[in-house]
């Protein structure tokens, strides 16, 4: 069996698992020699497609795998399916709406719908922002295995900030993401721009892996949060249904 095929089988298997996997489990599940699995994992790790979580002795997808997902999204499927949904969401709410994908520890905006007479935003198609500061990023991070989040944010140096707000160390991010999972949607209040708030909801694939997130941004107080969040969750669910059918 060609090495390329074996490597792709490893990546595909990791993408379907809810948590990092031991090399021995990969060898067993894929019916590959352990020596082959270890060799391929080493090669994939060198290129950033997988990461080795040494404390757990397990393997997970790396940031380069996220880049592939972002590349897929940029090449039309998610963009085409998401654009009318995001446009309808913006029209319905009278606020600016966005669709973003993960790209390493950033989010990459692939659809941007600006509402008339609303504040200018830093988000736009092709713009990257730190995932831990955005509603879209937090929604997707909350859907990742905790070990994967730990690999993306191993220490304080992995936490850039824009306005002096937001999590600054792994423990703070873990608590924030725990709240996102309990609430069912993510929020952001002034971490990207003063005076602006956002709510975001994740879009997952058939395996439950986050592939995108929908968000709405508005100025002012939090009084509209529940209403806007419900609409954003509906839009994310609609996009999820269209991408997985």
TrEMBL record:
Residues 1-63 form the HTH iclR-type domain. It comes from the Bacteria. Keywords: DNA-binding, Transcription, Transcription regulation. The keyword Hydrolase does not apply. Signal peptide: none annotated. Residues 64-245 form the IclR-ED domain. This is IclR family transcriptional regulator. It comes from Microbacterium paraoxydans.
């Amino acid at each position: 069996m060609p090495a390329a095929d074996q490597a792709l089988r490893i990546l595909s298997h990791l993408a379907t698992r809810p948590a990092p996997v031991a090399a021995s489990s990969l060898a067993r599940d894929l019916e590959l020699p352990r020596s082959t699995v270890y060799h391929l994992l080493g090669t994939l790790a060198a290129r950033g497609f997988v990461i080795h979580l040494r404390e757990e002795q397990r393997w997970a997808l790396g940031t380069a795998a996220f880049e592939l997902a972002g590349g897929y999204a940029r090449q039309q499927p998610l963009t085409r399916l998401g654009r009318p949904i995001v446009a309808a969401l913006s029209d319905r709410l009278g606020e600016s709406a966005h669709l973003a994908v993960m790209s390493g520890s950033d989010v990459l905006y692939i659809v941007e719908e600006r509402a008339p007479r609303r504040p200018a935003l830093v988000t736009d198609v092709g713009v990257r922002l730190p995932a831990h500061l955005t509603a879209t990023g937090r929604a997707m991070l909350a859907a990742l295995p905790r070990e994967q989040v730990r690999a993306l944010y191993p220490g304080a140096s992995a936490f850039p900030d824009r306005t002096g707000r937001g999590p600054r160390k792994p423990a703070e991010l873990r608590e924030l993401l725990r709240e996102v999972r309990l609430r069912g949607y993510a929020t952001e209040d002034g971490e990207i721009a003063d005076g602006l708030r956002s709510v975001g909801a994740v879009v997952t694939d058939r395996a439950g892996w986050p592939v995108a997130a929908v968000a709405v941004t508005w100025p002012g107080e939090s009084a509209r949060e529940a209403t806007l969040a419900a609409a954003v969750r509906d839009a994310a669910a609609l996009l999820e249904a269209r991408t997985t059918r």
